């Protein structure tokens, strides 16, 4: 009985420390602008640690206590508990998967799903606050109008300003249409990137501090199955032939866009596999990709299609011979 009390007291104490640390990280994210982006990725790590060490009940209690504390101090449900849900829930989910020794792709998918859940909830609340049905579209209109206003000031001093103004106006209108058409894809891609970074950081810290030695698949070993490549091509053909604006066509376009993104990741993984012999450090390779993304912003669609084609090739002919090496069975 005494031993049980000791364990319980220690677990509660550990839960309280994690809640305090989580709230501290959250506050830094809210009030220190420099730390805002980083906070998004690291706030859930203490909860992942707690989940591995103490299990579901203590972690859930610590999670709820963190959200309540943030709400009490900020008094704002949006910048408080809601942003907490987006950043903390993935940590809990990833910690749960790691503690149950789930396969890497299951842990990654669960982390992405948790981020996506938070983002969708955030968008739904923002939509209601911005005026119901046309909330997001209305916010986009406001942004486009302010951008157009700023551009018009500059254009008025240029020759052929009327033509230039029409071009800018048309470009902004098309941008709005693309954002509204592919809004679900934008959310999925954002959740995938955030989920991947949070999962990688959780695994890194748990390994570094010897909390949990978890098997994971390195980025240059990520590979999609051949069937996904075939399905993407078939759906692409159907999508090109569908020109109506029904909800089914809209859904199909988004499914094709998400599958294309997955193939792009395979293509990038293939590039990473080739580059790793010249640049051993993963951080330096990441820096190179980031630089290419910034410098090659205007060629982004070309880069996207090249990587997608490389992903399709790799899915079909296994360029890296990962199946032969047995690496894709790594959990």
The low-confidence runs, each spanning 5 or more residues with pLDDT under 50, are 325-331
Strand content: under 5%
Total of helices: 14
Please outline the major beta sheet: none
Task: Measure the end-to-end span.
Answer: 39 Å
Give a brief rundown of this model:
This protein is mainly α. The protein has helices spanning 2-31, 36-42, 45-54, 56-74, 78-99, 104-129, 135-155, 161-181, 183-208, 226-241, 247-275, 282-295, 300-317, 322-325. The chain has 14 helices and no strands.
Salient structural properties:
single chain; 331 residues; mainly alpha; 14 helices; globular; disordered C terminus
Topology readout:
Elements: H1 2-31, H2 36-42, H3 45-54, H4 56-74, H5 78-99, H6 104-129, H7 135-155, H8 161-181, H9 183-208, H10 226-241, H11 247-275, H12 282-295, H13 300-317, H14 322-325
Helix pairs in contact: 1-2, 1-3, 1-4, 3-4, 3-5, 4-5, 5-6, 5-9, 6-9, 7-8, 9-11, 10-11, 10-13, 11-13
3D architecture notes:
It contains 14 helices and no strands. It is globular, with a radius of gyration of 23 Å. The protein is mostly helical and 331 residues long.
